[in-house]
Amino acid sequence: MESKRKQILLRHKAHFERKLADRMAFLAGKGITSRQADRDPVVRKWKAEIKAAGKRLKRMAAIETLNEELAKNKAEKAAAAKVEATPAKAKEGGKAEKPKKAAEEGKEKKAKPEKKAAPKAPEGGQS
Fold first, then answer.
1. Would residue 81 count as lying in a domain?
2. Residues with Cβ within 8 Å of residue 117, at least 6 apart in sequence
3. Looking at the domain assignment, is residue 75 inside a domain?
4. CB-hemisphere CA count at 13 Å for 107?
């Protein structure tokens, strides 16, 4: 799906190209050569607008290709992780008893060792 911004830029570029063609035709009608017309401020403005729109479109295309590559890499990593996870689940089927035994052993309460009483201070009242 194309972005709205890309469609707008394409329309702007086409609009500027039409304006430039009209201006060049007008100047040619007046007898001005294309070399002289290149120095015309209006012609220079339209050419600059066309160039700017072209740069924006190129940048958008570069970003789209980058996004496609990133999505492709992400899909490959997800598929690789899925393939690696599948054999691990098959192995866990045979080992299902061991975690249960460990859980049962963990439920048993261990006797806490008795704490030793701290040595008492002599009651002589030494200051």
1. yes
2. none
3. yes
4. 6
- Residue 45 structure tokens: 């403005």
* pLDDT recorded at residue 45: 96
Quick one: angle between helices 4-29 and 41-94, nearest 10? 160
The verdict on residue 116 lying in a domain is no
User: Which range of residues forms the domain containing residue 78?
Assistant: 4-87
How far is the CA of 125 from the CAs of 18, 117, 118, 119, 122, in angstroms? 108, 21, 18, 16, 7
Query: Who's near 5: CB < 8 A, 6+ residues apart?
Result: 60
Rounded to two decimals, the pTM is: 0.58
Q: Mean pLDDT, to the nearest integer, of 83-92?
A: 68
- What is each CA distance from 99 to 13, 87, 94, 109, in whole angstroms? 67, 18, 11, 18
In a domain, 11, yes or no: yes
Structure tokens at 11: 């329309």
Q: How far apart are CA 108 and CA 48, in angstroms?
A: 80
